[in-house]
Amino acid sequence: MRTLYVSDLDGTLLRPDGRVSAYSLGVLNRLIEAGVLFTYATARSLSSASVVTEGLRMRVPVIVYNGAHIVDARTGERLASETFSGEARAHVQGLLQAHGVSPIVYAFVNGRESVSWDAEQVNAGKRFYLDSRRGDRRLRRLEGADSLFDGEVFYYTCIGMSSELRPLYGALAGDARYTCTLQQELYRPEYWLEIMPRRATKADALAKLRALLHCDRAVAFGDSVNDMPLFRAADACYAVKNATDALKRMATGIIDGNGDDGVARWLAWHARAGE
Fold it and tell me: Where, if anywhere, are coiled coils annotated (predicted)?
């Protein structure tokens, strides 16, 4: 039986310092070299994920932007993508403006992946995010919102306090055109509202990747609410000890926490090439 192992990054594979430990790198690289099909599924971009997983020698395509894209981690080639239709994009834009929320917009503008924001609408949480990505060639700083929604848009991130974002989340969460998540940022007091096309989920991306790799079975690892679709789509799923209670209730089992290399330790005992 051909098995695909897929792990979330932040709070799951990454330690509390936001990196993959030397122990996990050693275990995972040995398994990958032996032919185990291991990958990750993250809300991060490939650019950001590549920094925090430095040293991990990926061979299997990875799932980024919560499932909006499947990409070859070595070349950056997009193997599958989900983007907003023009009508859905216009609807989201109207709601954002009506609720007074200025998002970070992820899009392909003139064929280039871009992260755009209005420099006149920057709060502390957004500033922290942007400062942490200085030097990122995707960054597209705008003075005003005139060009904010240009291009082939596939992802919106709204950063703010819960009270600011919950009304917008309420207006979008029940709409069949979108997938939305609202959760507190792992390392900060702010909340993130992420708005994606309906089929931009870790579950949909996992189904596509399984088909691409001809896998009979998938085993997933996670810690938070955005991993729930991944858990539903997997044949077996394991929550790290530090996971939310809701995710633990969905899990096949509970493993050691991210600070104790739970994913790598489980894989070291259970994962075998071709199984």
Answer: none
What distance in Å separates the CA atoms of residue 242 and residue 186, rounded to the nearest whole number?
12
**Distance in angstroms (rounded) separating the CA atoms of residues 132 and 58:** 24
pLDDT over threshold 70, residue 245: yes
Tell me what pLDDT residue 28 has.
98
pTM reported for the whole predicted model: 0.84
